[in-house]
């Protein structure tokens, strides 16, 4: 099968969808010998972010996957932002989507041209937030329209209006891939055809997280984490949206009760980084702060911690939970629809009330004071990850979804 994958960023860029697309693309090549091409941006960061760092080369092959990276329009960002502020002040509402999308939804002529001219049997794109997901609206204006699969990765803690672009895109694609059944059920409530939604999520190679004892011990020794200390870890973007702030609030309360606890905050820096560091210094908290660490260090970090926490209230899945489980670590997540669908509370992890530092504190106390519970939750998570989220299992599910999308498209056009 010839496949075109379309995404906002691709390895070595950061983020969950990039991680999924890389592993999925490579496994489709290695397991099924499919021809996989990727159309993406040339940015190391999400195209809507203020930071920009170009990835070179523009075209290359990685593990059998052909990647084409395209520049995109950024000059209009300050103008759209300014217009949005003025419009909201005068009209008391957000800028119309027809204009606002040029700030947040990626304007990239190169990606659109790649979709228009592809000889692929099927196109799969992620995520629903970007304009390239409008392909089904204009594909019949091209000479050779293609079946279109959408891996939406929708953050459905947001109450999207029924006419929102992301909902329209979910309705018109030939097959929609959901991360969780929560996402699937919410979309059905929005009027998306149930039969075309497939729940899959993402995968992981457990073997990539195997780590020798020496570097783990060296890491803990370097940062003065003793054998009896409890190292709590957040490994992900250092932003309010990812819950780094509320975790730090809960840890501050925990440390007053148990000074054997320490905190690791490791991930991509954001404008919020300075706020976190100021609080750490002011409160003299024992926090290991690692910004923009090398990816090769990730297995060491996950193995070095005792408890993993992602306090984000806005995840569509949370691959970091799989990474922690791959290292047999207990996890704590926010009790939102998507995360509650992934974590079985009390069996392979613990859930807390989203946005509530006291609720998170209670779960941290419960887990940090119970070594047996830590072990049992970590082992259960490890077992679930190997059975349900290994890449061979996930890749087959994605490929089956592509075939279903092709069949749906052919039925639609009368083939």
Structure notes:
It is a single chain. This protein has 415 residues and is an alpha/beta fold. Helices cover 43% and strands 16% of the residues. The chain contains 16 helices and 14 strands. It has helices at 16-32, 77-91, 97-104, 109-117, 135-138, 165-172, 181-189, 213-222, 244-257, 273-283, 298-304, 319-326, 337-342, 357-368, 371-388, 391-413, and strands at residues 2-7, 35-41, 59-62, 65-70, 122-126, 148-151, 175-178, 197-199, 230-235, 261-267, 287-291, 307-310, 331-334, 350-352. The strands form two sheets. An eight-stranded mixed β-sheet has the order 3-4-2-1-5-6-7-8, sandwiched between helices. α1 (16-32) links the parallel β1 and β2 (35-41). The protein is globular and about 65 Å long. The model has no long low-confidence stretch (mean pLDDT 95).
Question: What would the principal axes of the Cα set say about the shape?
Answer: globular
Strand order of the largest sheet: 3-4-2-1-5-6-7-8
Q: Kindly report the oligomeric state of this protein.
A: single chain
Number of strands: 14
Largest sheet entry? 8 strands, mixed
Roughly what fraction of the amino acids lie in strands? 15-25%
Q: How many helix segments?
A: 16
Topology as a string of helices (H) and strands (E):
EHEEEHHHEHEHEHEHEHEHEHEHEHEHHH
